[in-house]
Amino acid sequence: MGNSSKTAAAKQKPIYRVLFQNHGNLYELYARKVSQGDLFAFVEVEDIIFGSRGGVLVDPSEEKLKSEFAGVKRTYIPLSAMVRIDEVEKEGANKIVALAAPHGNVTPFHMPPGPHESKPGRR
Length: 123
Hints:
There is one protein chain. This protein is α+β, with helices and mostly antiparallel strands. It has a domain at 13-98: SH3 type barrels (Roll), CATH 2.30.30. Helix content is 15%, strand content 34%. The chain has helices spanning 2-11, 60-68, and strands at residues 15-22, 25-35, 42-48, 74-78, 82-88, 95-98. Strands 1, 2, 3, 4, 5 and 6 form a six-stranded antiparallel β-sheet that branches. The longest helix has 10 residues, at 2-11. The relative contact order is 0.23.
């Protein structure tokens, strides 16, 4: 009997918490599938999980996300916008959190480190 619960847990699809930046906000999504995908420098997120809570309380940011991603089969998020991806045991509430406003009117474009950056001891 102990093995049947292990087998059921092994067959359950993993759940991922995906955190990324978008238009000055931090998005937190829960999804069943996350991969590098076919588009270079993009993370592919599929099967976004939206809670089916039977409660009376409605989270406005989750409702906004639900309408923003309505009808979306998969979304591609630029690698430069990714904050982190975690595999979790159960889903939470999808949400949008406003980030602190940057100083000035220029937002830097995030670039991954590459060969163009100098190495210690080199110029």
